[in-house]
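Subject: design request, 370 residues
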């Protein structure tokens, strides 16, 4: 199972509720026949996008999809960016009537984060292909999404910003960078700051890819089988916990498990550049440093009602910074006490609580689910 598919499967369980210059961005659909289609792939063209570092992404475009109807007050929008390696198409199944992102109530905007292969990425850039594509940050993702919301969709405020994993990181950025832009913020399995353990994980995966003989400094064209094999092994260890793996895979089944893990996600150097650039963005994540504050201080910039969702066994995104952030502002925490770790949403259905928080954020209390 690929990391992307694993997160999609986790989301399925998680959300099972049971019932140019600024102002010049242009929107376009994937093709004329899909214009206006509910959930159809669309793109916003921004010309050149200046990054926080001062570097520029040329001919920048941002992918997105919309579902539901924006109300007359423009107060019911939910912004939902993609997770690490994820694409907005994978989020479609979680937005609709009766889902957490209920399209009978909300105008849902699914956004392809920079570097996901749909929005501008090393693999699809004509002018800055592969490693010529500049390093970007989680904050840069948020800035591009803010331009989409304001310049393209005409929104001055949204009801909620929510997301899982790398999207949860974007939610923390949103909460402190644009504290009055949303009523509700729900970071799930995300973090406002990468710990040394997080950096070790992402660096190890990058190293595994760059050691592949077909990497060729980002210029290779053949599949990077060995690099992505080790990359997958590292990701598999991090996505759950030792207890989960021991319980799920018997020793005599290990060879089969390992073969599936090694072969599940393979690409060439162009795809690897996407993988690397998004991980570099996570390695650099530190919302406190952006504002020259401590984590406790920067948390108090947030004005939105927040529900912070973590798992103590998360070995992919260490939950400690998210807990510090939540405690600083008295935000309720949903703790998923599960050996599934980062994939705990696949083991514990929490959709009803999230849906209730979207509808009535004042009613939420900290809770531990098993």
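Subject: RE: design request

Done. Sequence follows.
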């Amino acid at each position: 199972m690929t990391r992307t598919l694993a997160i999609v499967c986790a989301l399925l369980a998680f959300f099972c509720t049971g019932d140019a210059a600024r102002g010049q961005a242009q929107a376009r659909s994937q093709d004329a026949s899909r214009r206006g289609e509910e959930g159809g792939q669309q793109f916003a063209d921004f010309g050149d996008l200046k990054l926080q570092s001062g570097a520029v992404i040329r001919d920048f475009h941002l992918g997105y999809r919309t579902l539901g109807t924006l109300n007359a007050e423009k107060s019911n929008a939910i912004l939902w960016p993609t997770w690490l390696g994820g694409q907005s198409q994978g989020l479609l199944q979680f937005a609709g009537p009766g889902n957490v992102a209920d399209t009978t109530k909300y105008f849902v905007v699914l956004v392809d984060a920079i570097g996901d292969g749909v929005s501008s990425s090393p693999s699809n850039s004509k002018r800055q292909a592969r490693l010529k594509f500049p390093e970007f940050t989680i904050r840069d993702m948020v800035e591009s999404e803010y331009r989409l919301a304001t310049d393209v969709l005409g929104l001055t405020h949204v009801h909620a910003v929510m997301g899982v994993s790398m999207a949860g990181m974007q939610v923390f950025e949103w909460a402190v960078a644009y504290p009055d832009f949303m009523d509700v913020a729900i970071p799930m399995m995300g973090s406002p700051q990468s710990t040394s353990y997080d950096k070790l994980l992402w660096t190890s995966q990058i190293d595994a890819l760059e050691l592949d003989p077909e990497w060729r400094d980002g210029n290779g064209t053949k599949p990077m089988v060995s690099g992505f094999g080790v990359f997958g092994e590292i990701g598999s260890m991090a996505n759950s916990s030792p207890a989960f793996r021991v319980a799920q895979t018997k020793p005599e089944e290990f060879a089969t498990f390992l073969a599936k893990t090694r072969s599940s996600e393979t690409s060439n150097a162009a795809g690897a550049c996407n993988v690397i650039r998004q991980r570099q963005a996570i390695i650099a994540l530190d919302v406190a440093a952006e504002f020259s504050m401590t984590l406790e201080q920067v948390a108090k910039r947030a004005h939105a009602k927040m529900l912070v969702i973590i798992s103590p066994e998360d070995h992919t995104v260490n939950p400690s910074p998210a807990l510090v952030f939540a405690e600083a502002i008295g935000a309720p925490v949903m703790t998923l006490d599960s050996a599934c770790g980062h994939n705990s949403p696949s083991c514990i259905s929490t959709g009803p609580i999230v849906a209730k928080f979207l509808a009535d954020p004042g009613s939420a209390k900290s809770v531990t689910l098993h």
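The chain has one domain: 3-196+283-369.
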